[in-house]
Amino acid sequence: MNIKISENIKTMRRERDLSQEALANRLGVSFQTVSKWERGENYPDITLLPVIASFFEVSVDALLGTNEVEEETEIKSVIEKLKYFDIHYMREELANTAEEGLRAHPGNYELMMWVVYAKYDTDPERSIEIGTYVLDRCTDSTVRNQTLTYLSRAYFYSGNKIKAVDLAKEMPYFHQTSDFQLSQFLEGEERKEHIQRCFIDLAYQFWTYIRDIKCFYSHEENVVLFKKSNAVYDAIWESDDLPFKLVRKMRNYQGMAEESAALGRAEEVLSYMKLAAECAVLHDALPDVVESRSILFNSHPYDRQYEPSMNVSGELLSDFETEDEFYSGVRGTAEYGEIVLMLEQ
């Protein structure tokens, strides 16, 4: 993108017969900073853009000198990349691309939100800086709500748990969310499809929550929790033909194996490993677009392009072969060899 902010600042400063030092004093920066802006060596921080635009009595877009159609196309392209990196758990690429996108389009609130999301755990101070800026200025409710979610996480990772809790309390409760309200207001097939999609989130939350509370339970109790999670998936989707269901069941069986290993029950470890492997093999054999037979997921096909991995058999085998804490005690057995062969085919 061709940002013309450097030449625009220089032109507007000269039109007002201001020196670099005089402009710097008005903006609260050094004259060296203004000089670097005008030479194109770096750009003003996003928090300064509205200040500079207001000083020159122009819009931020006018200050940047952007072409709105061109910018919209480029931002859309960046966001598509961000979604791809997010789906595939490519966190470093996600953070770098979000920052690059924001440097190219420093006034875009959606890209700011992505930076807050991409860095809330690795660079919480950066997320807090950008997130606070968004909440102070952005009026788009969707962007604000998403930013608030990730900003609260950033405060948590920064060590400010009190602020994290306070922000979390500002978020809507379930019955105030769009998912719940739309389930009441939509009609016909649209309502059915929306509610079916909500089941995915609800089952996933249960799957996630049992991992969050593992530390409060014994190894035997955790096996029961993993079984309950699989029972939820089987209750909602009675057929094993959905990729996300098979991945979650696989990880639950893997969790059961690891809890059983902590109890020293090798036979149960192998039994759960085999069940996990069966889920992985089924997952990898599914077609690219799945038409599920499950009653609660028959409103639309499921496209495997949204799956984080198309080869979970390889990932599971890597876990079995490298995580000595859980699986070293069963390696070398005939049953282990059979499981490896199953995953390698």
Layout: helices, strands, pairs:
Elements: H1 5-15, H2 20-27, H3 31-39, H4 49-56, H5 60-64, H6 68-87, H7 91-104, H8 109-119, H9 124-137, H10 141-158, H11 161-170, H12 178-185, H13 188-212, H14 219-236, H15 243-262, H16 266-285, E1 289-290, E2 302-303, H17 312-322, H18 324-327, H19 334-344
Antiparallel strand pairs: 1-2
Helix pairs in contact: 2-3, 6-7, 7-8, 8-9, 8-10, 9-10, 10-11, 12-13, 13-14, 14-15, 15-16, 16-17, 16-19
Radius of gyration: 26 Å
Question: What order do the SSEs take from the amino end to the carboxyl end, as H and E?
Answer: HHHHHHHHHHHHHHHHEEHHH
Main sheet attributes: strand count, strand direction, barrel closure:
2 strands, antiparallel
Strand order of the largest sheet: 1-2
Helix content: over 70%
- Number of helical elements: 19
Overall, the morphology is elongated
Average of pLDDT: 90
What is the β-strand count?
2
Strand content: under 5%
Low-confidence stretches: none
What's the number of structural domains? 3
Distance between the termini: 47 Å
Overall structural class, as computed from helix and strand content, comes to mainly alpha
